[in-house]
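Appendix C: a fully annotated inverse folding record. The material below is reproduced so that readers can follow the format used throughout the book. The structure is listed first as tokens, followed by the designed sequence.
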């Protein structure tokens, strides 16, 4: 997309792209952890930055028909998840405008728990 500067929403507990370390979002933006993608657990966030969007496509999900766009990391172009553009089922509208990130592709980081000599802090559960 040609935008070089990276946005940062702040936050005490933040999530970065596991591949290239780009800041993506923070815990305050987390809506739900009860999602799954084709590759495993996925989390729903209200606000995610430093991503770009693919074309809008119809997807028939467990929860009904949706218009979604795949989202990609601006830093490394990894497909991180998808964006809910529109839901056609009553009760699913809360997801509109929210983004799914695959847990396996993001890394949690906190202010008081930096990376240690023993390795990265990999997400398990909330
Ligand atoms: Zn990345």
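Designed amino acids, in order:
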């Amino acid at each position: 997309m040609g935008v070089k500067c990276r946005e940062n929403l702040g936050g005490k507990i933040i999530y970065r792209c596991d591949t290239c370390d780009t800041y993506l979002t923070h815990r305050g933006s987390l809506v739900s952890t009860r999602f799954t993608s084709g590759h495993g657990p996925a989390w729903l966030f209200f606000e995610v930055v430093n991503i770009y969007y693919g074309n809008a496509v119809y997807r028939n999900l467990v929860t009904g028909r949706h218009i979604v766009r795949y989202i990609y990391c601006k830093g490394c172009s990894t497909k991180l998840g998808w964006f809910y553009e529109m839901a056609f089922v009553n009760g699913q509208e809360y997801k509109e405008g929210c983004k799914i990130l695959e847990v396996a592709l993001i890394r949690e980081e906190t202010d008081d728990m930096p990376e240690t000599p023993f390795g990265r802090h990999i997400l398990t559960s909330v």
